[in-house]
Amino acid sequence: MREFTTAALSICLSLLALPAVLACGYLLSCTLLSARGRPPGSSSRRLRFDVFVPAHNEEAVIARTVANLRQLDWPQDAFRVIVIADNCSDATSRIAAAAGARVCERTNLEKRGKGYALAYAFARSASEAWSDAVVVIDADAEASANL
Length: 147
Hints:
alpha/beta; 4-stranded parallel sheet; 4 helices
């Protein structure tokens, strides 16, 4: 009887340990089969894009934003920084142009706001058919170099 009790206890303990053994085995196999991923291939950097900056009376910050965007880690001839000066009554257009942006002045006192300014910019960009993509950045934002 004692042998039966010892055998039954051994079986019970083995069954209790089985989930832990299986989990450890799974983690060990994942570790052994894992390999360091290959780094992504270098970009051909052929993508051309427009960076739209809708702005309404942003003369205080627009130069900093344009300068920041001109520093993107991308070929300078493959992107354009375009400020949409929407119903501006200050020097936003002049300052943005001096900072190196292309400026599209938009005046429509009935259809005001960022949505209308962006619709105007998207339509203009599509008609020029220069860019493959567009990016929208607020006039008071700062973008990382790898945007």
